[in-house]
Design brief:
The chain has helices at 45-55, 65-76, 81-87, 94-106, 111-119, and strands at residues 13-15, 31-33. It is mainly α.
């Protein structure tokens, strides 16, 4: 949906804010992501997909890490998107809040907007940003050092 990959998933994946979905309405091979925050109900499909992309550290992207970050930032430059996601950030895991902070800083969001995100992070924690560790301010938002990929 977001255009980070051209692949179609082998299994359907669904997200719900409930504890489960009845298997009668989905196939048994379907992967169900449960307990998504209630705040997701008000999000557009694109906003929810972006949060899922952040939760998964951008690992589904077939693009280079630089192209992945550029494409992600284009989505976040759309008017109102950062503000909408900032409103529900408190219901997201700390890693996602840190990524949102790094994105916001790269988009020159006012520090007052980013302050709540920063205050909600344990200063001793380090987060695996995955492919999104290429964000310009990832280290300032407590991203772990990227591990070099080994080639054989």
């Amino acid at each position: 949906m977001l255009g980070f990959t051209t692949q179609n998933p082998a299994r359907i994946e669904l997200a719900t804010n409930g504890l489960s979905l009845p298997r009668l309405i989905v196939r048994k091979e379907t992967v169900i992501h449960t307990r998504r925050p209630e705040s997701w109900r008000e999000l557009s499909e694109t906003d929810a997909a972006l949060l899922d992309f952040l939760r998964n550290r951008g690992v589904s992207s077939e693009l280079s890490v630089e192209e992945t970050v550029d494409k992600l930032l284009r989505y976040f430059r759309e008017p109102g998107r950062f503000e909408r996601l900032l409103k529900i950030a408190a219901s997201e895991p700390p890693r996602v809040r840190a990524m949102l902070g790094a994105i916001g800083q790269q988009l020159d969001q006012p520090e007052r907007r980013l302050l709540a995100l920063r205050k909600g992070l344990n200063p001793l924690s380090r987060f695996d940003f995955g492919n999104l560790s290429a964000l310009a301010f990832a280290r300032e938002w407590q991203a772990k050092e990227r591990e070099a990929r080994q080639t054989f």
